[in-house]
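To: structure subgroup
Subject: Chain for Friday's discussion

All,

I'm putting the inputs and outputs inline so they're searchable in the archive.
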Amino acid sequence: MRIAIAGGTGVVGSYAADAAEDAGHDVVVLARHSGVDVATGSGLGPALDGIDVVIDALNLLTLRGSRAEDFFVTTSRNLQAAAARRDVKHIVTLSIVGIDRATAYPYFRAKLAQEKAALEGSVPVTILRATQFHEYPVQVMRFARRGPVTFMPRFRSQPVAARTVGEHLVRLAADQPGGTHDLAGPEIHDISDLARRFVAVHGPRVRIVRFPVPGKAGRQLRRSALLPTDGTTIDGPRFDEWLASADAKRIQL
């Protein structure tokens, strides 16, 4: 099978590419460095020639909900339109567990809009909703770092390794299209605690300022909006196992 991966150089997308190659699939990474810009559609059509399945693992780190929504809706529509023209049979879209229960947070509303845009197209879509990644605290700390200080929101999650998410995306790509699937890791943690544990093991020395998420969004998170519900697939590794792995060691804060 020929699989195209949008966001194939990102945290999850790169693991999806590895998993697809390990499973014997032919992989095409959709990235600007290879002449494909999913946000503008430039180069997208020719890149999907002969593709059976598209995995959408695109991501955008931003605090602006409008920018996130514009990005996710535009890229989803561009993928749908180009995939339909090239007779692609299936799109697998990566989303987030609990976004329909935490709608006060602009980024989650943007991801809901992405799901809607993907499902409105003519190519059948499977959605994988995953909890925050084990890598997520480092991403936030890097984004929010100001010299020797970084800021970290406090909320509970049941995080899952990005490698595990990539593997599940590939399994869904090889399956019949349709439906929404939830995926989480084995343990519940406060995300800010995981940030401290990562720094304690892998450094660098940085002061982590933890803060509660304010307003309605914070209330939704405190009500466990982002935790998995019954029927969620649980898959490891646990955070401590991941923390000792090569995947954690290669991350730079």
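Points worth raising on Friday:
The first helix runs from residue 11 to 22.
The chain is about 40% helix and 20% strand.

D.
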